[in-house]
Write a structure and sequence with these properties.
Aminopeptidase; six-stranded mixed β-sheet; 11 helices; 27% strand
Length: 354
């Protein structure tokens, strides 16, 4: 990791981000209540132990970020972090949840990160209520006691929203980065039609090639080879990302009730793996975590087919949303162009706040 505080997903710095919360207009009664509770003491924060077996995400029509899934928090405990979950309650009713990651440095400095959350029980939760919850959470941390909190919300970049966060006492310390989600609820024909022309033509060519596709699951033997390729790829391209050990740790923390795990895709030619991809599954969503292609695969555009077949396999598992894992246009522009070829629209987040 390039940053000592934030431990996160697939991007070298902040990880894979972004879902766009729906901002529907609620009834007048709830709107009035929301404004009343902007500084209302009825909003409380309750801390809980992270437990994948009892975890639930009620909003199945909104993407679930990897960094808010309990299996991710437990997996990071293998790398020096601790995780806790919190519930935001309004008049004793849960309105949102969040997973917090904690790290301690030099025995005294304590850093807590709320990354890609909170998750709201209703996607149309008013902004006033969301900010009131974040203010309540922030009040639990005292920088003068070397106890720091950083919040990286799932909010698209907007001058109006930035101003609202500023008025709520949340100061931005870092701008957001870009990623994209693919809505896998669409049928296969629509997904294929949404591909960019060049990307789709490359897919057609790859489908005519002789190599085959193999889909794997949570068994280490099905994805270990891809971790080895990724390690070599990182050394050759000189970029950093999350520890490769996150994958087996994530698998170990996954449970059937938490709907988490991994899915791997391999392109095989003459009994040799020439390309592959690894997806982390978290609730109704998945993250494109690792992709690799050898020289033969590049000539065949095999990675186009690997990603496409992965999308279809995720759909078959009732995964509704796919996070493409962030865009690093400075160091990995080619990978960013490849991801955008799927037709997914890039989205820049609001940033990090203290």
């Amino acid at each position: 990791m390039r940053h000592p505080i934030i431990v996160c997903g697939s991007c070298p710095f902040l990880g894979s981000l972004v879902f766009l919360p729906v901002r529907s207009v609620m009834g007048q009664q709830y709107q009035a209540k929301a404004l009343l509770h902007m500084d209302d003491s009825q909003i409380t924060v309750k801390k809980n132990v992270v437990n994948p077996a009892s975890w639930q995400f009620s909003d199945q029509n909104s993407p679930l970020p990897l960094q808010q899934h309990p299996a991710y928090g437990l997996a990071l405990q293998s790398f020096g972090s601790t995780a806790t979950s919190v519930e935001f309650e309004d008049a004793n009713k849960t309105i949102g949840t969040a997973m917090l990651l904690h790290r301690k440095f030099l025995g005294a400095f304590r850093f807590t990160t709320l990354f890609r959350g909170p998750l709201w029980q209703r996607p149309d939760t008013p902004q006033e209520v969301q900010l009131a919850c974040l203010k309540k959470l922030k009040a639990l941390y005292a920088p003068w006691r070397w106890n720091f909190l950083a919040v990286l919300p799932e909010e698209p970049q907007s001058s109006e929203t930035l101003q609202a966060y500023k008025k709520a006492g949340l100061r931005r310390i870092m701008s957001g980065f870009s990623t994209a989600w693919i809505d896998l609820r669409a049928d296969e024909d629509f997904l294929r039609a949404s591909l960019k022309g060049k990307w789709r033509n490359q897919l057609v060519g790859a489908e005519k090639s002789a190599f085959t596709i193999s889909i794997g699951g949570r068994k280490a033997m099905q994805y270990d080879w891809l971790l080895e390729k990724e390690s070599t790829q990182r050394d050759n391209r000189r970029y950093q990302a999350t520890p490769l050990g996150l994958v087996p740790a994530f698998v170990a923390a996954s449970t059937p009730k938490s709907a988490s795990g991994v899915l791997s895709v391999a392109a095989i030619q003459n009994r040799k793996k020439i390309a592959g991809a690894l997806f982390l599954l978290h609730g109704n969503s998945a993250t494109y975590h690792i992709g690799w292609a050898g020289d033969e695969a590049r000539d065949l555009n095999a990675q186009n087919r690997v990603l496409w077949e992965g999308m279809l396999a995720l759909k078959a598992k009732n995964i509704r949303f796919l996070d493409l894992g962030g865009f690093n246009t400075a160091d990995l522009a080619g990978i960013a162009r490849f991801k955008l070829g799927t037709g997914a629209a890039p989205l820049t987040l609001l940033g990090a706040f203290i």
